Amino acid sequence: MMKSLYIAGSWLEGQGDLFESLNPVTQQVLWSGNGATAAQVESAVQAARQAFPDWARRTLDERIQVLEAFAASLKKHADELAHCIGEETGKPLWEAATEVTSMVNKVAISVQSYRERTGEKSGPLGDATAVLRHKPHGVVAVFGPYNFPGHLPNGHIVPALLAGNSVLFKPSELTPKVAELTVKCWVEAGLPAGVLNLLQGARETGIALAANPGIDGLFFTGSSRTGNLLHQQFSGRPDKILALEMGGNNPLVVDEVADVDAAVYTIIQSAFISAGQRCTCARRLLVPEGAWGDALLARLVAVSSTIEVGAFDQQPAPFMGSVISLGAAKALMDAQNHLLGKGAVPLLSMTQPQAQAALLTPGILDVTAVAERPDEELFGPLLQVIRYKDFAAAITEANNTQYGLAAGLLSDSQERYQQFWLQSRAGIVNWNKQLTGAASSAPFGGVGASGNHRASAYYAADYCAYPVASLETPSLVMPAALTPGVRMS
Ligand SMILES: NC(=O)c1ccc[n+]([C@@H]2O[C@H](COP(=O)([O-])OP(=O)(O)OC[C@H]3O[C@@H](n4cnc5c(N)ncnc54)[C@H](O)[C@@H]3O)[C@@H](O)[C@H]2O)c1
Ligand SMILES: O=CCC[C@H](NC(=O)CCC(=O)O)C(=O)O
């Protein structure tokens, strides 16, 4: 039996349901193991509770040393890890390698952010010293999505450990192998037993972990649906910190720009990178009515139809790999059919060339005529085009969503960008740049149904520790003057 869990410094067999991860193109089994039961979740929480005081008491430099050893371990295993990310998610090797680089870089960025946002400050206040310090919350759970199985959980785990928390890591059940390899890098780095525990498993394990009274907080990256469930579960618990990084229905507005090819390239990088499986991907492309818009769409369709789609290790390398599973491919094909049934016009049909491989070709649908367009995130390579009459209508349409993760404008007019920036509602607002590929050196998070105002990336430090304000003086002295109504004699 596979030892799938890492609890209190030991690899253990899960006692929950057996599950496996598959290569989404070949359906080859890559990993199989049992999930953690509620009892195993409880023992991991106990281990994390026991490990917490010692880890939190260490100096920042001592914790940084372990984090830097982790970065070194990631670099040492970079090829193996990139291969594992590629085969388990289906993303091309070149892209998987960039994910590993982001994981390595997260360490230095988190240290910089910790020092800047949650470090120590002091200054005189009256006859005392005012000191601001930060403390870790305690034991926190980290839930990861499948689309960046290394980078995104890492974006919670690294700052959480740096701040002195101990962590229970529940990865996506679709990418357990990447999670296992990542935890092995932490073990190689010398992280003390119990400080990071790995709880593999599907929904049941997640439900047991989120409900465990021993956690002080939960940092989640995943779908809006699951995030909402967690938010409900945490209602009435203001004592626990909850950070939700969720999906989007992101608009990209195109104005009549001079360089049509640059616009087309930027749209493709926004909509189809990672086979459309990035939370920041453009889902809705807003194009002006008329001949210029028609020509832009014709060029977009022509170029998109030449995009190479293939297995993660195909040579020469494809631009797009597969989506995560056959189930996800079917759901996306069903969503396309649903929109076609409601009056969408196919400009480029998304297809699944082989029934037994989760490879999808890019799709572009004109949904302008669809009444009551569903405001949902279609997490794949399917771009919906909406034609607009004037710029004001474009902005109204861009904001016509419950989500608020990313929004972009392609325009040669600075004035229009200023208007767009002011009137759009999203955590990421870009001008003439692709929507995807956000920097870890900036805050990353959305409003509306995309998040709960706890931005991650550079601002992750903020939800990993709480501020403690102190007024301090080494000896107690009587004030020169007493307040009225108090007599000391
Ligand atoms: N905003 C961001 O930073 C960001 C980044 C990446 C992905 N995403 C979003 O993530 C989604 C894709 O990821 P996914 O499909 O893996 O998300 P998901 O919500 O299905 O799963 C995320 C995690 O939650 C667990 N989970 C599922 N149901 C649960 C429940 N009822 N209780 C407790 N845990 C539960 C899963 O096992 C997994 O570990 C997309 O919506 C994407 O936009 C957002
Ligand atoms: O799928 C969602 C994340 C996409 C990715 N964003 C980041 O990497 C944010 C930076 C960070 O978390 O360090 C993107 O925008 O492509």
Automatic annotation (TrEMBL):
Q: Name one Pfam family in it.
A: Aldedh
**Origin superkingdom:** Bacteria
Key words of the record: Arginine metabolism, NAD, Oxidoreductase
What does the record give as the reaction this protein catalyses?
N-succinyl-L-glutamate 5-semialdehyde + NAD(+) + H2O = N-succinyl-L-glutamate + NADH + 2 H(+)
Q: Provide the GO biological process annotations.
A: L-arginine catabolic process to L-glutamate; L-arginine catabolic process to succinate
The record, for Gene3D superfamilies, names: Aldehyde Dehydrogenase, Chain A, domain 1, Aldehyde Dehydrogenase, Chain A, domain 2
Might you give the EC number(s) for this enzyme?
1.2.1.71
Q: In which pathway does it act?
A: Amino-acid degradation; L-arginine degradation via AST pathway; L-glutamate and succinate from L-arginine: step 4/5
Q: Which GO terms describe its molecular function?
A: succinylglutamate-semialdehyde dehydrogenase activity
Q: Which residues bind NAD(+)?
A: G222, S223, S224, R225, T226, G227
Q: Which residues form the active site?
A: E245, C279
Q: Where do the Aldehyde dehydrogenase domain residues begin and end?
A: 11-462
Instruction: State the family named in the UniProt similarity comment for this chain.
Output: Belongs to the aldehyde dehydrogenase family. AstD subfamily.
Q: What does this protein do?
A: Catalyzes the NAD-dependent reduction of succinylglutamate semialdehyde into succinylglutamate.
NCBIfam families named in the record: arg_catab_astD (TIGR03240), PRK09457.1 (NF006992)
Q: What is this protein called?
A: N-succinylglutamate 5-semialdehyde dehydrogenase
Per the UniProt record, the source organism is Pseudomonas bijieensis
